[in-house]
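cron nightly-structures :: item 1 of 1
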Amino acid sequence: MKSESSISIALKLIAYFVVILVASTFISAALRMVYLMCEDIVVGQKITSININLFLDGISIFLPFTIFVSGMLLTFFLIRHSSSYWLPIIVYTLLCATAWIVVLPLCYHLQERYHALVSNEKETVQGVNNSSTQLSSGYFRENENTIAYYSDIDSNDVATGVVIDLEGGINSAVYTFSNEKLPPRKTFADNLIERTVQMPFILFHIFEQASLLENVSRSSFAAGVIAWLCFITMGGAMMATAGLRHLSNWRLLNVLSVMFFTILILVFNILAYTNPVLLSINDVFKPFVKNLPPIVNLFAVLCNLLTLIIFSVVGLIIDLKRKREPDSYGSSFSDED
């Protein structure tokens, strides 16, 4: 059976890259906008308008995240659309380089201009967070050890209602109250909304670490060219994981290998830029590089470059062997493209 043309794979890869950047960024920004807007609504009320500032800010936040994982997603495409020719992997390399060297800095430039543009507006891009949002009456709301039913809430957040004390078990006390000042709101205006839309712990932790990495990335960009070049060695290391796309005949194993090492590189770089123990390793290299330009986080840079070299060499060896012995990999390739 004739294999898919390498030109066709390369063109599809470019289209896939554009879809990844646009669709993932816009969908993530829209979900973030809805989530943050839920912080300011209460049960029984509806969202009256869309906060476009939240959406635009979400684009500037999630585009870097998309770029961080775009190499892994493109590699999945190459695993699915295998080719013995070099054109797809060359296009892949150019796309990854464009994302890290051109698109990501451009994103931070636009982010700075956008934040400067809206900095004087009363409604910031961080969310409305309207502390005057009034709770609606007529609903049961569970707190730490009580369930409260507010029969009436006035404009000053003074409530009347009934409370069930849960600490007593089957002998729980039930009592009424009036003219009780409601506690100040936390992140969400209504805990009923919070219980419905609050992120699971694992997902929250993933976003927390991703936000930490994005902060490191933005700080490196603001610190100058050398700091930025040092940081994007992480992108080179993740890009080189494509060398594992033909690691075995089993595509699932190849996908899991690429995913594992990409996550490992991300986690290592987060720790290398934030963990005091790993940061202290850089002191070991200072006597050897005192005559060189100041390299930011030399330990992370060396590890990233070493990963880039190892995965590139491994991928080159596998591809050369695969091109010589196509039948041993369970595929046949035509001599014409």
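cron nightly-structures :: done
The chain has eleven helices and four strands.
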